[in-house]
Amino acid sequence: MITQNASEMAAAVAAGEITSEALTQAHLSRIAEVDEKVHAFLHVDAEGALAQARAVDAARAKGEKLSPLAGVPLALKDVMVQKGVPTTCGSKILEGWRPPYDATVVTKLKNAGVVILGKTNMDEFAMGSSTENSAYGPTHNPWDLTRIPGGSGGGSSASLAAFEAPLAIGTDTGGSIRQPAAVTGTVGVKPTYGGVSRYGLVAFSSSLDQAGPCARTVLDAALLHEIIGGHDTYDSTSIDAPVPAVVAAAKMRNVKGMRIGVVRELGGEGYQAGVLQRFNESVEVLRGLGAEIIEVSCPHFEYALPAYYLIAPSECSSNLARFDAMRFGLRVGDDRARSAEEVMNLTREAGFGPEVKRRIILGTYALSSGYYDAYYGSAQKVRTLIINDFNAAFAQVDVLISPTSPTTAFKIGEKADDPLAMYLNDIATIPVNLAGNCAMSIPCGLAPEDGLPVGLQIIAPAMADDRLYRVGGALEAAFNEAWGGPLMNMAPSLTGGVR
Amino acid sequence: MISRDDVAHLAQLARIELEASEIDHLAGQLEVILGAVARVQEVAGADVAPTSHPLPLKNVFRPDVIRPSLTPEEALSGAPASEEQRFRVPQILGEE
Lengths: 499, 96
Description:
Strand content of chain A: 5-15%
Oligomer: heterodimer
CATH class of chain A: Alpha Beta
Number of strands of chain A: 11
Distance between the termini of chain B: 41 Å
Order of helices and strands of chain B: HHHEE
Order of helices and strands of chain A: HHEHEHEHEHEEHHEHEHHHHEHHEEH
Largest interface: A-B, 70 and 55 residues
InterPro entries (chain B): Asp/Glu-ADT_sf_sub_c, GatC
CATH class of the domain at 1-42 in chain B: Mainly Alpha
CATH architecture of the domain at 1-42 in chain B: Orthogonal Bundle
Number of strands of chain B: 2
Strand content of chain B: under 5%
Distance between the termini of chain A: 10 Å
CATH architecture of chain A: Alpha-Beta Complex
Shape of chain B: flat
Pfam families (chain B): GatC (PF02686)
GO biological process, one term (chain B): glutaminyl-tRNAGln biosynthesis via transamidation
Region (Disordered) (chain B): 71-96
CATH superfamily of chain A: Amidase signature (AS) domain
Shape of chain A: globular
Structural class of chain A: alpha/beta
CATH topology of chain A: Amidase signature (AS) enzymes
Helix content of chain B: 25-40%
Domain Amidase (chain A): 23-468
CATH topology of the domain at 1-42 in chain B: Histone, subunit A
Largest sheet of chain A: 11 strands, mixed
Structural class of chain B: mainly alpha
Strand order of the largest sheet of chain B: 1-2
Radius of gyration of chain B: 23 Å
């Protein structure tokens, strides 16, 4: 039952073949069984989830119309607030904090009868590509427990790959939905900036942060996207337009005549051979499905990574000023003799981990007088050049494709104290955040050299999220036919028995 | 390029009481990171306009109407210390 797709689970609940309570209990049992090994969850809200599930069952019994994912469980990244449920962002500075309100995404999930199982592990304040920066210990990749599940949303991606949840919410500032999806063989979508409300999402880099759907199939991601997307007056950067028709696009399974661009700069040197092999095969599959393949050049993409590591730290140094030990969270050293400033300094030293400190200091430097123009100012100009590159590319093609991540999942600890090596994981995903358009990662096979999942990235213009699902849905169907089923069927069992 | 004293000063600006060993470690790492990100200057010519945000938004207004909000108890529920419906904070000004 837990290996089904979310859409199948919802259909079974709607048809009365299973109650949401039983479905939720099955997932809670799975979490109890495997999460000691995977560590996808920071908090499991069994009581709250079962209460939500019983409410869906009661609504169904009364004959109320159910939403397309009603009664299906979901894992929520711990960067999004849910009233009364601990929210830590993977940081000690928020340990024990229980938010007094719901994020808009959470409100929409609750209204749609989606059952929230608990909060998933992440790199502290979403800063990282491996989930090793969590103050609560790393998450392990269900494909190989000695390897990282991607980051920052490694808890969400691992929960899907471990069948602890069929749906998850992630957030993507530089690749934190897509790269975890790539290395766990799951589907992850960064919607157009402003397409999903940021109200109740703890801010890291406000001009880049975007919440989005994570799932095991393209259709499930689309169903979740439609629920969480849309305009929100509580978020002034929310786009006042209808959600693109992503569910219909996911069901089309037809890319005939679409113009698909292969980005010359996102491949080659620095990319693992098996990743490139699976990517090149995918290009041929698309060609076989009737798409027109065009090579395009985005010459400024090589400057995206440096620009990102100025812009994101700059914005984070400002955003994380709110963790000041005064209104919520940790307070250290308040002996009634020390000043507020001294308590603030001690609290931030004790509460933040090394990567968060590194980025705050870097951002403080990039924004300081005398360096602002050379660093932050120059990075903002690169942002314009990246947008121009995308505009030129989308004048020629409908979507762009590339590998999502240059490598498959690496070993836990391998890059832990080499920030630059770690930052390179996001080399193909970052341009999209800087420009504010949308992208998806779908599994495109296993790398021959290590047997680990490879992700393919599909990129579309702003508010053309439906194109991601059209291409993703068609490719997924072609792959499943070639593989004789979904990629997840090839994942190892976590319990020794039959999955 | 970035000295130990620079890092100590930045940490003070960022209100983080870094330990001496952290300052040493960070100074080395920041040197490497800044060397890599400085590449943005290669293409950031005077003719390129900066972009601060993906959406061309200026001000976003909504009608000024009263709507439900947190109660004082809810707003203070996560406070490290509170007193008389207020956040209690350490002293901000000196004695004199």
